[in-house]
Amino acid sequence: MNYNVNEKGYYGEFGGAYIPEMLYPNVEELRQNYLKIMAEESFQKEFRQLLKDYVGRPTPLYFAKRLSEKYNTKIYLKREDLCHTGAHKVNNTIGQILMAKRLGKTRIIAETGAGQHGVATATVCALMGLECIVFMGEIDIKRQAPNVARMKMLGAKVVPATSGSKTLKDATNEAIRDWINNPVDTHYIIGSVVGPHPYPDMVARFQSVVSEEIKIQLKEKEGRENPDFVVACVGGGSNAAGAYYHYLDKPEVGIIAVEAAGKGVNSGESAATSALGKVGIIHGSKTLLMQTADGQITEPYSISAGLDYPGVGPMHANLFASGRGEFISITDDDAMQAGLELSKLEGIIPAIETSHALAIFETRKFKKDDVVVVNLSGRGDKDLDTYIKYFNLN
Amino acid sequence: MNRIKNKLSENKKILSIYFTAGYPKLDDTVEILQQLEKDGVDMVEIGLPFSDPLADGPTIQQSSQAALKNGMTTELLFQQLKDIRETVSIPLIIMGYFNPMLQFGVENFCKKCAEVGIDGLILPDLPLAEYEEHYEEIFKKYNLINIFLITPQTSEERIRQIDNASEGFIYMVSSASVTGSSEGFGAEQEEYFKRIASMKLSNPLIVGFGINNSETFLQSTKSAKGAIIGSAFIKMLSEKGLGGISTFIKSIR
Known about the structure:
The complex is a heterodimer.
Chain A (H helix, E strand, L loop, with lengths): L9 E2 L2 E2 L8 H16 L1 H15 L5 E3 L1 H7 L2 E5 L10 H14 L4 E6 L3 H13 L2 E7 H6 L1 H9 L3 E5 L6 H14 L4 E3 L10 H9 L1 H14 L6 E5 L4 H7 L9 E9 L10 H4 L1 E5 L2 E5 L24 H9 L2 E7 H15 L5 H7 L12 E5 L8 H8 L3
Parallel strand pairs in A: 4-14, 5-6, 5-8, 6-7, 9-10, 9-14, 10-13
Antiparallel strand pairs in A: 1-2, 3-4, 11-12
Chain B lengths: L2 H6 L5 E7 L8 H10 L4 E6 L9 H13 L3 H7 L11 E5 L1 H7 L1 H11 L3 E3 L5 H14 L3 E3 L1 E2 L5 H10 L4 E4 L13 H11 L7 E4 L5 H8 L4 E4 L1 H10 L4 H8 L1
Parallel strand pairs in B: 1-2, 1-9, 2-3, 3-4, 4-5, 6-7, 7-8, 8-9
């Protein structure tokens, strides 16, 4: 079975481009050109050069000795937290800003949840001298204040989304509305593997550098390209898509996706889409979606702004529906403990999103010889305030 | 014959009104429809509210949220419309986003439409290709006309394609914007209206987005068959309630 996108833009039954006609010309222009542009030698050269010199790639694959000892298995951390701007998000924004330039666009819009994608977009806009507008839920603006300040310093305009739950979903709605209002000069840099085709595939390809590097690095360290398991947290799912990408069609590699259970999967305050969602349409994509019986999209909850999304990318919906991926959901509390544990055992303060992925070791047991790669998608600087309050660190 | 086609064959400009079902009050749907027919409106789009209306500006976002808060659901809308054809004879179209329809079941939704006397559907986020591949047969089975949109950015080739796939009319979005955000039509719109008119499409055009008074109604219907008023009507309902309908409609033409 093939777990990648097909020529119609679907992963199994998930994906497609369910967009209003107003967006059709832009999305179609992108669809017709993205693979061609990405294949151009000059594009690849510029993309690779920036990933190396500007982002700081390759990021290390680090053997977490003390963590491994504690859980009696071999845990490697793919250090995306060491990327410039503090998370994997910049891999995609570098790719998309180069794409936007080749499409002749001069104005960039983006949505952001935790603010990491907003910062990564503002960063590449500064780098390329393009106008940047970032939509961010009003609630997220409050809980991610340092990232808001960073975006402003980088010259971006941050526009609060005040509709609905005032989080990532609503920021995405506002970005799409802006694109409808500005169809000619604007490129929308979507931050995750969500949205209408070709976005999920394009973003996954830009993020696929993560598993491309894991293969080479694991070969050096373990003498084999394939780990037994690759683990990542999933909100929309871009860091996961990057970590899984080159392993999708390798059945010997177990794929583990970790979602945010919030206060508990059945608490009514959760973002565990695979457990709570049904097939539906959000932001132009057919995917698993948290919704009412009447098809209204429900408001998710997670302590981590980056996982606070009621859907998942269509690639992940298909990994879940086909059984290719193992889906685990982790509560706020367990994630916070795992974040603290990594800090103390390995000297790495992870983003709370990433802490969800690290929390699985308490319950999901692995064999002693298993090689488990966890994508350490982001660093915890932006979350210090939440950690401080939660653990009373003052 | 479908009521939409009948209406379009009349020798007059069409005034169509959009409102959100369940707003301002949950049970206003039938009374609004009856009043609109009495006041001489030619056709109505009944908006099925959705939590995340991507193509709509603040007015319709708010009316949709209020309607959902009031308790509007797909099932309830069909219940409200159960006897509508005893009192209302103008064409009725349901306009909504695709997800609520998908959850209700596309075939079940179409069947209910046919039972209560709905003539057509406008689903902005159901693209032409998906419709043709998966749903056209079902729509046809229940004699429902699916209305497609074009915008100032739609290519000539795509407009021809949409014209071929359409029956009834083409919904011509007046400008590059979400609903309710335009302030009058300038040279750019005039040019666009003329350009599309000169294409001699086989379907009539009805203009929507940004029509809010008699001036914009006249401008947009100079070359088009009719025009749709949505946000401006909803704004009026918010301010004056159902009692303001007659005055509003008379002010348009």
